[in-house]
Amino acid sequence: MKVLVTVKRVIDSNVKARVKPDQTGVDLANVKMSMNPFDEIAAEEAVRMKEKGLATEVVAVSIGPAQAQETIRTALAMGADRGILIQVDGEPPEPLAVAKLLKAVVGEESPNLVLMGKQAIDGDNNATGQMLAALLEWPQATFASQITLNGDKASVIREVDGGLQTLEVDLPAVITADLRLNEPRYASLPNIMKAKKKEIAVKSAADYGVDIAPRLKVVKVSEPAKRQAGIKVESAADLVMKLKNEAGVL
């Protein structure tokens, strides 16, 4: 069984994002970049499937600038077998364009399972996995906290607002990983060295005949308003008065 896992290059989760002075986007200059944390969980799950003998090959795919090869190398060091980079310079493509590119890769690779992070921490769109499943007309299971493969089916426990939901989907399918699916490993030095010799095929959107022209226009990007300090009140009556007259919530 072949597993395709997507990995995106994003600002490191420990870095505080800064907005550009002209408010046209997020400033990426001299900022540490890493693999999207949810994609890291998806990559870990794919490698575990291979270690259990449930998968025969794990292919890591990224869409982004040339530097995204580093992100793919991280997945290769974790245990993926080879990588594919669809090089896109400039602004990152929108979720629909990404889904169309991934559909083309799926058509070329014919995987039995596509594993993705539930969302990327930069755009927080939480849309690409669902769009890809729709384009492929494949079953989907999002927000997975447990995946059990059984032949040509996958049982998935997914996190929903009210608790947990268990689904069974036919393979091939698209599954997106949530935070509690696993704890990603740290790549060992020998595996990091081995990853340097593994294959990464570099392609372009034109190779797949996909139009990635943006359909949305960013009007302005701004930082969230800073929280104001709280105050103490002397009595419940004062609290009600302030909530009614000052906060306007009553």
Number of helices: 6
What is the molecular shape? globular
First-last Cα distance: 59 Å
Query: What CATH architecture would you give?
Result: 3-Layer(aba) Sandwich
Q: Label the structural class.
A: alpha/beta
Q: What's the order of the H and E elements? A: EEEEEHEHEHEHEEEEHEH
- Helix content, binned percent: 25-40%
The main β sheet shows up as: 9 strands, mixed
Can you count the beta strands?
Answer: 13
Strand content: 25-35%
Which stretches are low in confidence, meaning pLDDT under 50 for 5 or more residues running? none
CATH class: Alpha Beta
Radius of gyration: 21 Å
| CATH-assigned homologous superfamily | HUPs
Strand line-up of the largest beta sheet:
11-10-9-12-8-1-6-7-13
CATH topology: Rossmann fold
- The structural domain count equals 1
Question: Mean pLDDT across all residues, rounded?
Answer: 93
Task: Give a verbal description of the structure.
The model has no long low-confidence stretch (mean pLDDT 93). This protein has one domain: HUPs (Rossmann fold). It starts with a strand and ends in a 5-residue tail after the last helix. The chain is built from six helices and 13 strands. Helices cover 27% and strands 28% of the residues. Strands 11-10-9-12-8-1-6-7-13 form a nine-stranded mixed β-sheet, sandwiched between helices. It is of the alpha/beta class.
Give a short synopsis of this structure.
Helix content is 27%, strand content 28%. The chain has helices spanning 37-51, 68-78, 95-109, 128-136, 189-195, 236-245; strands at 2-6, 9-11, 18-19, 26-27, 33-35, 57-64, 82-87, 113-117, 140-150, 153-160, 163-170, 173-177, 200-204. A 9-stranded mixed β-sheet has the order 11-10-9-12-8-1-6-7-13, with helices on both faces.
